[in-house]
Specification:
By secondary structure, the chain is of the alpha/beta class. 30% of the residues lie in helices and 13% in strands.
Amino acid sequence: MASKLSKVGGSAFELGQNSDINVTPFVDVMLVLLIIFMVAAPLATVAIKIDLPPPNKDQPKPDKPPVLVDIRRDGQVFLGSTPTTYDALATDLAKALDVPAPFEEQILIHADRYVDYARFMGVLNLLQTGGYHKLALIAEDL
């Protein structure tokens, strides 16, 4: 084994350049960050607990089909398949429901996608001012 004690024409106390990268501080910082993220990640998740009722297969079928208010593309209002007018909708609806408390019944509303928003909201407002507050919107093609 040989060692270099001095170089020719130079001092014995000069050191050569070291080109190795010291990765120890880098590894230390990465491990600290890994631990921080492992602790913080479960705290960042948001969970909403929802208590859903179990499915009931023995639910009774409704005695009669629900009442459907249909608003067509041209603005005509139908109660089921019977045409009605905007002014007579509330009274025709009470006749179609044919129950002692028609305001407690659920009413399904379907509107064509090309119906004016003002016309659609007019029908909803008319039903709500008439006392019908259980309104359900249908979002499917009939």
